């Protein structure tokens, strides 16, 4: 049996299929916007069936929600929320601010924000989920850092 036929017969794992869909969706959503991407186009780009798309994500909003959730990991700016010294506190706070501004000004982040804001008119839960997975986590981290600084007397 040729290698080509063997490769076709090997089962594709669920995670491989889901990841192909998410990677294709992310690229297509960034290039064209969510509204311009059909299930047919996404399946063609991801080399999968509509059955798999709907089985794993339910619908196109489910795909976008999964992409947003996955991209939310980019917003983890690794903030130390409990530094031991005042110098470490200020270093953590200014480092967080610098990383946040760099992220927010990246072309990818600007495009993602624009797409989420456009789609949130039709799906308000999507914007809420994006906020919780991205900005909300950073907000919680910096609030924890400031509370820790207040508790330690580094800031009033």
Concise overview:
The protein has nine helices and no strands. By secondary structure, it is mainly alpha-helical. The longest helix has 19 residues, at 14-32.
Name some characteristics of this structure.
156 residues, mainly alpha, 0% strand, 9 helices, elongated
Summarize the helices and strands and which ones pair or pack:
Blueprint: H1 3-9, H2 14-32, H3 39-46, H4 50-57, H5 60-71, H6 86-104, H7 107-120, H8 124-133, H9 135-152
Describe this protein's structure.
The protein is mainly α. It contains nine helices and no strands. It has helices at 3-9, 14-32, 39-46, 50-57, 60-71, 86-104, 107-120, 124-133, 135-152. It is elongated. It starts with a helix and ends with a helix. The mean pLDDT is 85.
Largest beta-sheet characterization: none
CA gyration radius, whole angstroms: 20 Å
Shape: elongated
Question: Total number of β-strand segments?
Answer: 0
Q: Report how far the terminal alpha carbons are from each other.
A: 73 Å
The residue-averaged pLDDT reads: 85
Portion in helices: over 70%
Q: What is the H-and-E element order?
A: HHHHHHHHH
What's the helix count?
9
